[in-house]
Each structure stands twice: as C-alpha cells, then as structure tokens.
Design brief:
mainly alpha; 0% strand
C-alpha cells in the first residue's frame, strides 16, 4: 500500500495507475496478482475489438449498437475501477437508449480514455507474464 492507502502491485510503480484502480479487484480475488493479470490479459485481448465496434457504430449513427457496445465495455472497465471511462461509457449507453450516438467531441473523449485505460491495464497483465 502507498501513503494514500492504495494498493500498489508488486513490481509496478504507483504512478502506473492514474486512470484505473485495480485494488478492489485484487482484494476480490484474495490478493492473487496472477488472477488479476489473467483478467487484465483478457481485457487487453478483447476490449479493443469491442471499442472498435463502438467507434464504428458511432460513426454509422447506430444508437442501438452504441448502447450495446458501451454497456459491454463499461462492465469490463468497472472491474478495474476505470471510473472516468466507465462514466463516459455510461453516458454513451444512456444516449443509445435515447436513440443518440456520441457527438464527435464525446467520441474523442472515449478514444483518449480508452487508450489510457488500455495502457494501464497492460501493466496489470505483466506480473503473471513474467512469473
């Protein structure tokens, strides 16, 4: 734990985690960093395709697909406490229910947030890869 009481993963500097907080997930799996790493690898392997479908649906104006992909990705991000991205995805999901898709500036926020979260979750995947 760091001075703020936050969990820092073995071999990972605290500064690696600015957009996620995987400490709740670590606690939920009994402190097993290998399980967290496996879940992180699953995210890294599957989330980019889901996000690409969200982008495509947004550009095509397909609100129902935006709702579906946002909902799916939001749940995955919530595992890692990616609060900002989860909130953006919740808004996109709610917009989809209203028949709207993210505006260009909202899509840009989603893209930036997803890139940041994906990068940090890649760090979570490393402990088990090197073990």
């Amino acid at each position: 734990m760091n001075a703020k009481g936050e969990t820092v993963y073995p071999g990972q500097p605290e500064s690696d985690y600015r957009h996620i907080d995987p400490s709740d997930l670590l606690e939920a799996v009994g402190g097993d960093v290998h399980t967290v790493a496996a879940l992180a690898r699953t995210f890294v392997e599957s989330a980019p395709a889901i996000f690409a479908r969200l982008e495509q649906a947004t550009l095509a104006g397909n609100a129902d697909a935006c709702r579906h992909e946002s909902h799916t990705l939001k749940g995955m991000c919530a595992l890692f406490n990616a609060r900002v991205l989860s909130a953006l995805l919740l808004q996109a999901e709610q917009d989809g229910r209203q028949g709207r898709v993210p505006r260009p500036e909202e899509l840009a926020q989603l893209q930036a947030g997803f890139a940041q979260v994906l990068d940090e979750i890649r760090h979570c995947a490393r402990p088990a890869q090197t073990a």
